[in-house]
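Propose amino acids for all 100 sites.
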């Protein structure tokens, strides 16, 4: 991970996020911490990553999410050359998805 983001302030933010108990608490917290556009951008990137992992085409992803090809490309680069954070979360979410 980049040392640029490893700060005491980021540590505090992550501790706050880890203290959240459920999705409702996440909504409450993130609505205060993020602007609507920031939250929608984060969720859009996560959806793009999910769809890329599901082998969707750039065109399908752009049409469904409204993401630009530049955003899709950046997310794809993170999936292929990043720290495997998306994969870690997708693996942990798989049992949840299977139970739905």
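Proposal:
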């Amino acid at each position: 991970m980049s040392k640029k983001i490893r700060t005491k302030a980021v540590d505090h933010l992550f501790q706050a996020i880890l203290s959240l108990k459920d999705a409702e608490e996440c909504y409450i917290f993130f609505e205060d911490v993020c602007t609507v556009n920031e939250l929608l951008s984060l969720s859009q990137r996560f959806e793009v990553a999910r769809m890329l992992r599901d082998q969707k085409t750039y065109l399908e992803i752009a049409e469904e999410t409204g993401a630009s090809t530049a955003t899709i490309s950046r997310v794809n680069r993170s999936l292929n050359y990043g720290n495997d954070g998306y994969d870690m979360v997708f693996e942990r979410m798989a049992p949840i998805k299977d139970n739905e």
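The two ends are 33 Å apart (CA to CA). The mean pLDDT is 93.
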